[in-house]
Amino acid sequence: MEKYYTIGDVAARTGISAHTLRYYDKEGLLSFVKRSESGTRLFTKEDFEPLYTITVLKKSGMPIKKIREFMTLYLQGNKTIHDRYVMFNEQRQSLLEQIAELEDMLKIVDYKCWYFQEAEKRGDINYYKKLPEQEVDQRIIEFNKIVDDFREGVAKED
Amino acid sequence: MEKYYTIGDVAARTGISAHTLRYYDKEGLLSFVKRSESGTRLFTKEDFEPLYTITVLKKSGMPIKKIREFMTLYLQGNKTIHDRYVMFNEQRQSLLEQIAELEDMLKIVDYKCWYFQEAEKRGDINYYKKLPEQEVDQRIIEFNKIVDDFREGVAKED
DNA sequence: ATAGATGTTAGAGTATACTCGAAGTCAAGA
DNA sequence: TCTTGACTTCGAGTATACTCTAACATCTAT
Hints:
mainly alpha; two-stranded antiparallel sheet; Multidrug-efflux Transporter Regulator, Chain: A, Domain 2; 3% strand; DNA-binding; 2 domains; homodimer; 6 helices
């Protein structure tokens, strides 16, 4: 006799609501889950691995439709190992790009935090414009260069 | 005589479509943009800085409504410098958390890439289950521990 | 045996962020 | 002058991912 988990059990353990789990099932992400005679979903211990994989792909920014593609491969067993590797490898690239973009944004936001503090000290958001050029902090000059590039249409491929 | 940019100019330079720019305006993000007598939006050189700031906040994951709050502060000038600092500082925290989460996901995805390659070599997605325990790679043991925690409901606060 | 908790489905509703279409206005060149 | 292209608004449509409700079934514990 195997132990089964109901949708409520799974919801309580994983933090994914029962509503969301049913939605995922409807979207074809949970085809591996067995049903009782009366239709109740019966999750097994083993089902938590693909379920965990779904959460990882979700948090990596993969849309539901593409996760469904992955799960379709998963259901086909050993003959799709390579295809699944390819999908994860692409997702790896996507993650690297997302992280790089957020790190770029972090740099700008860090600068802005610094700049707002400087401006607050002086009570003037445009204080640097009244300074002789040599006294303007390099960070401000660099930021203004970025904004100039933005205005000139440099690197608008996103 | 000041040079003006139309919405089409701005779209071409920034890569943000004119449709999207009008949508942003409707949502209150572009209240700083002047209009001609006949209603045409007239962007100035200076408008590109707040516009750039909007793109940075967007790419940092800030929702439009919150960007509107920021722009409301922006329009009020020097008396809101501190509030704007606070918003950017919060966004900084949010970015650090997003990056940390994506890096966690990257670790899992890296592992999965490695594991799929190992499984592909052996033609069996569950090859390790047939191995004597001492021969199972440490990475597999650690991953299984993570899945076990997931099933046990450890760290479901997200 | 029956109440109450939990399960089921289908389908509607919400939130976010666009994205597009229609109908009309306006300015500049042939 | 007239056509053309770019601008305007309003409102509808799309995509994604939930989130919830209603009506009903089933399981469990007293």
